[in-house]
Specification:
The chain is α/β, with parallel strands linked by helices. Helix content is 47%, strand content 13%. It has a five-stranded parallel β-sheet with strand order 10-9-8-11-12, with helices on both faces. Strands 5-4-6-7 form a four-stranded parallel β-sheet, sandwiched between helices. Strands 1-2-3 form a three-stranded parallel β-sheet, with helices on both faces. This is Nitrogenase component 1.
């Protein structure tokens, strides 16, 4: 029997697909559901909203009784006439799927008329926002991307989920900077330097990199369809040791790269981190030295932050909770060399695991504020929902380790 969740921290599949489509210039999502489905998508954001509105068929009771296919046909036509975009993606909510609207037929009518329309089943009962992101990426790769000539050095970046992962923009920008730093060309798909052209260019890349389990299906599809090799990371690397190791893997897999220049870049970044950490050691010691810590984070961040705290600072994990329910086939990679890992999307269960751990500092979302206050320990907000605005400062990469240290020092001083 399925169990209910208390205060889950991810929206539904419709939300994840909607976030992803909204984050690609040239793609317009069209929500085929009741008005509340689109409104709730904005309420689920980690910090703020998507910054845009989206068209919707606005299903009412009449459509639930008699069907909403004709309403969808009308809305596709209106959207294509008003909104300038190359691809319209029809995303279905629970009501449309439960009443059995023939969404595929409506989308096919539009395609027969010369419009590029993609239809995707994203009802909330199909999973969380992370599943919606994965479904959107997979559908985009399989149904809109076509073969093209290989572009030397082009590397696809997949994994951070737009708007659902609180620091997604900052993480994608740092990863792009790192890939460019070793002499390759980043292809981020989402964000200011992504877009529909980047999505279409995924078929021309020399390599794909998946930074979380949620990019795995897409990189495998790119391999199956276009023969593009891929690398799967055990989450986003945090700090010099993990980031340097990942970049070395990327350089080795990418083919013709100036190894000497790449090595100079990696060594300079490692030197920079060491310089700053040396100047924080006294402060960290005065704040209590090595501490036991607990984390309640999605798979994008959990492994990298745990390894950084353990290997770089010498701290000990008291509880590790992964909050986004990643697919079972990816969990062994995520858990590699970590102690006991718990998986839970339920707020009460997460609070119980952390509350009984004896942790002296917590890393999680704003939902962990209550248990942090009860334990009288600092809370570092690294995940959604969060009050921390993080457009340019994420926790991944060489610079992410230093951002984490800044947050630790600040929170410890205020505690």
């Amino acid at each position: 029997m399925a169990a209910h969740l208390m205060r889950p921290r991810a929206g539904c599949a419709l939300h994840g697909a909607l976030y992803a489509a909204t984050a690609i210039d040239g793609v317009t999502p069209l929500v085929h559901a009741t008005p509340g489905c689109g409104v709730q998508a904005g309420l689920w954001q980690g910090v703020g909203g998507c910054g845009v509105s989206w068209p919707t068929s606005n299903l009412s009771e009449k459509h639930i009784v008699f069907g909403g296919a004709s309403r969808l046909r009308e809305q596709i036509k209106n959207t294509r006439g008003v909104v300038s975009s190359e691809i319209t993606v029809v995303l279905t909510g629970c009501p449309a799927e439960m009443i059995g609207d023939d969404v595929e037929a409506m989308a096919q009518e539009a395609r027969d008329a010369g419009d590029e329309v993609l239809d995707l089943a994203t009802a909330g009962f199909r999973g969380s926002a992370y599943h919606g992101y994965q479904s959107f990426l997979l559908a985009a790769v399989e149904r809109t991307v076509v073969p093209g000539p290989t572009r030397a050095g082009l590397v696809n970046i997949l994994g951070p989920v737009p708007h659902q992962d609180a620091t997604w923009l900052a993480e994608i920008e740092e990863l792009s900077r790192l890939i460019a730093g070793v002499g390759l060309i980043p292809n981020p798909i989402f964000g200011p330097f992504g877009g529909l052209s980047s999505l279409r260019a995924t078929a021309q890349a020399e390599l794909s990199v998946s930074l979380s389990p949620w990019g795995g299906a897409a990189v495998r599809a790119l391999d199956d369809r276009f023969g593009i090799p891929w690398i799967e990371s055990a989450g986003l690397p945090v700090g010099a040791a993990a980031t340097g190791a990942l970049l070395e893997r990327i350089v080795a897999a990418a083919g013709e790269v100036d190894d000497a220049a790449a090595r100079i870049f990696i060594d300079r970044e490692r030197q920079r981190e060491a310089y700053f950490i040396d100047r924080l050691l006294e402060t960290l010691y005065r704040q209590g030295g090595a501490r036991g810590f607990a984390v309640a984070l999605p798979s994008l961040h959990v492994g990298g932050i745990v390894r950084f705290l353990n290997r770089t600072l010498g701290w000990s994990p008291a509880a590790i909770v992964v909050t986004d329910n990643p697919p079972a086939e990816h969990r062994s990679t995520l858990e590699d060399d970590l102690p006991v890992v718990h998986y839970s999307e339920d707020d009460d269960e997460i609070a119980a695991l952390i509350g009984g751990s004896g942790a002296e500092i917590l890393f999680g979302s704003s939902l962990e504020r209550a248990v942090a206050d009860r334990l009288a320990v600092p809370l570092i907000e690294c995940a959604a929902p969060t009050r921390r605005l993080s457009l340019t400062s994420g926790f991944g990469g060489f610079r992410g380790g230093l951002t984490l240290l800044e947050a630790i020092v600040t929170a410890s001083e205020q505690a």
